[in-house]
Design brief:
about 400 residues; alpha/beta; Spore Coat Polysaccharide Biosynthesis Protein SpsA, Chain A; 7-stranded mixed β-sheet; 16 helices; 7 strands; about 10% strand
Length: about 400
């Protein structure tokens, strides 16, 4: 009986590894961008809390968009700011709204803005973080995708500062691999990608039918599930790359990811059974993503099980070669996907940095149980350009 109880979770873990390995194959193929179309009305909203160091770059990029000026508006929600964020945003031509009270967090800030200024039926909401950098065609490409029939789109989230530290490089590597192996794969399968909290666009109808923004710790993940339940799929726009500053210190990384993990746990409690009550491939996939631990942690766990089974063979553990093979697949599969993303081989040589995020998973999990409220990730403004070189070169 004990053997069965121990082998069953091992079989479930191997099934999860196999599932992720197979679904990732659909990420190899690039998606075809929507054709150019007449411009739609877009409302860009930037929630910002003490972002004087970085917001000027994003607003400059927004001013340089090729989407017609009369078809876009830019709002900055200066959320309980103690610095010059509002002054800088106003000087850059944005409509500034200063929020002085209320629950902290991006979700409450966006809800506050929309309560004051509801979207018109023909408007699409576009959300960026204050530290983002975007290429000139971002808004026009979002408009084209919405015109083609998508009600929710999520742009590629890139890293602007992969050389800031080892932990920033590990985060960048995780995003680069996951963008293709998870997000693009889901779009190519006809399922739903994840909302990233920034670089996302939602039509007025989709947002209304999903119930608007919530006040959870991860408003993007919660909204993404509610959109799926309401019949709206998140389309992944792989060719539009939104630069995003990654935390450069372990402390900030752990606090940020602890909030993410706590929010994911809340979304799982709230939506898991609803997703499975009327199962479809997309809903089952979302349910799996809500319950699974971090992929790098699963790879590290497979390696440890292989070592234990090799040193102390036991009938209570699957053979070492089973776990060794599972670990090898997980560690090696992302490499060609990174190369397909245009990541240079010198950069790929730093791929083992992902082990750092894997090793932090357990302490982050413990820390997430103590999360009481929103944690604002500080930004340094360490951004070289909106399209940073990924490979440092020779």
């Amino acid at each position: 009986m004990l053997r069965v109880l121990l082998l069953l979770p091992q079989a479930a873990l191997l099934a999860l590894i196999g599932y992720n390995t197979i679904t990732a194959l659909w990420g190899w193929r690039d998606r075809r961008p929507a054709p150019a179309a007449p411009p739609l009305r877009l409302r860009v909203v930037v929630p910002a809390h003490d972002e004087e160091r970085v917001i000027g770059g994003l607003l400059s990029d927004l001013a340089g968009q090729d989407h017609p000026a009369e078809m876009r508006s830019v709002f900055v929600v200066a959320d309980r700011c103690q610095d010059r964020t509002a002054e800088i945003a106003a000087g850059a031509g944005a409509v500034v709204e200063e929020r002085r009270e209320g629950e902290p967090g991006k979700g409450p800030a966006l809800s506050w803005h929309l309560q004051r200024h509801p979207l018109d039926p023909d408007e699409t909401l576009v959300v960026f973080d204050a530290d983002n950098r975007i290429p000139p065609n971002t808004l026009s490409r979002i408009s084209d995708e919405i015109t083609s029939g998508h009600t929710v789109v999520q742009c590629y989230l890139d890293a602007t500062n992969p050389d800031a530290s080892l932990v920033a490089e590990a985060a960048a590597m995780s995003y680069w691999a996951g963008n293709r192996m998870v997000q693009l794969a889901r779009s190519n399968l006809g399922w739903t990608a994840d909302l990233g909290g920034t670089g996302m666009a939602i039509t007025s109808r989709a947002l209304q039918e999903a119930g608007g923004f919530g006040d959870t710790l991860t408003e993007d993940q919660d909204l993404g599930v509610r959109l799926l339940l309401a019949g709206h799929r998140v389309e992944w726009v792989h060719d539009v790359r939104v630069g995003d500053e990654k935390p450069a210190s372990i402390g900030v990384t752990m606090r940020q990811r602890a909030r993410w993990m706590a929010g994911k746990r809340a979304a799982r409690r709230k939506h898991f059974l609803r997703l499975l009550s009327r199962p479809t491939p997309a809903r089952v996939d979302m349910a799996v993503r809500l319950v699974q631990p971090g992929r790098s942690f699963v790879a590290l766990l497979s390696t440890l099980l292989a070592a234990v089974a090799g040193i102390w063979p036991s009938s209570l553990l699957m053979p070492w070669w089973v776990w060794g093979g599972a670990a090898a697949i997980q560690f090696l599969q992302p490499v060609p996907y990174l190369a397909r993303e245009g990541i240079g081989w010198r950069r790929i040589a730093g791929y083992p940095a992902l082990a750092l995020l894997a090793a932090l998973w357990i302490p982050i999990r413990l820390l997430s149980g103590r999360v009481q409220g929103w944690y604002h990730t500080p930004h340094t403004g360490d951004v070289s350009s909106s399209t940073p070189e990924r490979d440092p070169g020779p």
